[in-house]
Amino acid sequence: MANENRPVRVRFAPSPTGYLHVGGARTALYNYFFAKATGGTFYLRIEDTDRKRYNEAALKDLMRDLKWLGLQWDEGPGCEGSVGPYFQSERLDIYHEQIKKLLDSGDAYYCFCTEERLQEVRKEQEQSGVAVTGYDRHCRDIPREEAEKRIAAGEKAVIRLKVPLTGVTAFEDKIRGHIEYKNEVLDDLVLIKRDGFPTYHFASVVDDHLMGTTHVLRGDEWISSTPKHVLLYKAFGWEAPVWCHLPVILAAGGGKLSKRKGAASVGDFRDLGYLPETLLNFLALLGWNPGGDREVMSVQEMISAFTLDRINPKEAAFDEKKLQWMNGQHIRLKDDAFLLDVMKKGLAEKGIDVSGAPEARLKEIIGLLKPRAHFLQDIPNTAVYFFRAPTEYEEKAKAKQWGAGSRTIARAVREEMMAVEPFTSANIEAAFNALTQKRNCKLGDLVGAVRLAVSGVSAGPGLWELFESVGKNEVIRRIAAAEPFMQE
RNA sequence: GGCGAGUUCGUCUAGCGGUCUAGGACGCUGGCCUCUCACGCCGGUAACAAGGGUUCGAGUCCCUUACUCGCUACCA
After folding, report:
1. Which residues of A spanning 231-290 put their CB closer than 7 angstroms to strand B?
2. How far is CA A33 from CA A25, A47, A77, A163, in A?
3. What is the pLDDT of residues A374-388, one digit of tens each?
4. Phi and psi dihedrals of A172, rounded to 5?
5. Residues with Cβ < 8 Å from A12, sequence gap 6 or more?
6. Strand nucleotide closest to residue A176 (CA to C1')
7. ipTM higher than 0.85?
8. pTM for the whole thing?
9. What letter would DSSP give residue A3?
């Protein structure tokens, strides 16, 4: 197979009808990985042949999300290559030129059947319970001249492929092996629609060939269309690309992934606070693995390990719990400069300006927050109390931490803190330890009440570090401010 | 209904005829660390869909059944 040996050219060919679904994102990703792993080309083609479903906003989102993921195309909208245009709606002349070849060779024919007649045929087939349903090939043998006369007279028609009545059509799928269909179950599919636009089947075959596609990596919902595509390649006398049908991604409980079952689009996950590298890593592992025990990987590592034959044929369920864990892993891998930026922006949105704070202090805070974050937002969200006194206190924690005796403890801690100089975490810790001696208690008895007073919440970074970062005066002030809410 | 694809712990998976009394990860869970929560570390839980073959030997090959998913549009 020559295509197998040619420099790799692969594509992602979405139709701009809705948001970029994670399944689509993974298809794009595998194409991208394969291109990068082989030194090939990854191009983006927009399949906008369905004028009813076309959606301008979807197209913009699609490209934005692809870029956010880092799946930059080598050719396509915005970076024209030599085989454009990359919008199918701009390639109508090409399809009309190509369809003539099939008409001439007798591999395609005009069909004048109306929607109504087609529906009737279908109904009859269902009622009679025949095994093979589909178009009854009513117009298959209308002579070309007669058909063209009718067209000239203003009659509307579609153009269909003349599928062989007998025999089998087979192809090799790179991850599933040999697949074959009896020709008799294949329909005389429509190639050119009544509105003059090509169908997906026709446009994608013509484009994949003309745009030099060597491998088609697409969702496995296309498997049963593939024999039809193979027949088209044959009719044209073109060599078919290498087929590679990817398994679907299912929702956690099974079934299709959808908005109703939670996040489903790339945009959803971005808004939730996931890193693009997390999504890439997670999606890649849903149906592919490098063989060993490696799981948390960078894009570069995945690319260099990527091969088609390690793609699984099995459908995979999307487990958001694992995604969350993985996001934590990738957050911890991020450098401080990036996280610092996330923190600054997030805080700015809350009206907290940290531009005056020393860089070293901000970095320390990042260091404290990083191991605790699962989502990007967790960083600015928990950073708030480093800069601003709590305006409210966690209800459940109040009941637990500010019961009888807590005010006495708070007061004692506050007095102890006044004497700490300099106010460093080591000195703070020492002061707390001294206090446990004095009061003959444990650290646990001291910490809860003042943590809540200073941060407003019951859990978080180490108290000594927190105190040092907040600063002596402010710590003392915050404790004093909370004391009235505590029990004597 | 027809056709096609798929089937290893709850989930993602390793496994490509003997090294599998089935390994890793997430989850759940016991413990350690510890001022809390995380992180980290140590341990536990749990799977070859079923039945027939082939073979000295099957999670691995073949067949059947069951179940799941997809297609069955002038949508992609």
Report:
1. 247-248, 250, 252, 254-256, 285-287, 289
2. 12, 21, 20, 35
3. 999 999 999 999 999
4. -105, 125
5. A24, A27, A28, A31, A32, A42, A43, A44, A45, A66, A71, A73
6. B5
7. yes
8. 0.94
9. H
